[in-house]
Amino acid sequence: MSLTTIFIDLDDTIYPHTSGVWSRIRSRIDQYMREVMGFAPVEADNLRREMVERYGTTLRGLQTIYHVDEAAYLAYVHDVPVEDLLQPNPSLRQTLQAIPQRKLIFTNADINHARRVLIAMNMLDCFEGIIDIHRLAPYCKPMPEAYHTALEIAGESDPNRCLLVDDLPVNLDAARSLGFQTLLVRNDGRSTSIENDHVVIWDLTELPQVIDARGVVRS
């Protein structure tokens, strides 16, 4: 068996959480729920957490229960200055270009946000494509249907030949249950090499150290 396709998450995976991009997006989500939907601050925070737990993303939950406009919501919450918060990463660019397997972004964000992030980091051309929330609709990670959709888009019939790299264990757990190989990008500084049976790396530049032609190497 050979590793043929690597699916890589975007937010807090391509860039470090210390950049502040995702924290800005999370603040915009809360702001949307307060200012656009009229929830009190505590209600907004609690509802956001509930939506993520039940539906995978705040958006999918708000669509299901409150029928929010997807385009308007995504434009609002992604209105953050990624160009000011991110910069090119030559080391990561070199690492990704040296990996022979094809690579696709697999994200619950939309393609506009993904492109802005990748352009700011000078890495857009490192990926064959972007599988975003629109292409996954009406699903999202960690719904099983989202992974089946990603495989179909990628033209992959065997998930064992695919690797998902993500910063959220819940997304990796779902992928692994379907046969994907998995790799956790750990952003909180905890010292561990294995978590929930997922091999852990601290930065994407470590990819060549933990994968070979067959996939993830377990020491």
Describe the structure.
- The protein has 219 residues and is an alpha/beta fold.
- It has eleven helices and nine strands.
- The strands form two sheets. A seven-stranded mixed β-sheet has the order 3-2-1-4-5-7-6, sandwiched between helices.
- A hairpin with a 2-residue loop joins strand 6 and strand 7 (198-201).
- Helix 2 crosses helix 3.
- The longest helix is centred in the N-terminal third of the chain and has 16 residues, at 21-36.
- The radius of gyration is 17 Å and the shape is globular.
- The mean pLDDT is 94.
Summary of the model, kept short:
The protein has 219 residues and is an alpha/beta fold.
List keywords for this structure.
alpha/beta; 11 helices; single chain; 2 domains; two-stranded antiparallel sheet; 7-stranded mixed β-sheet; 219 residues
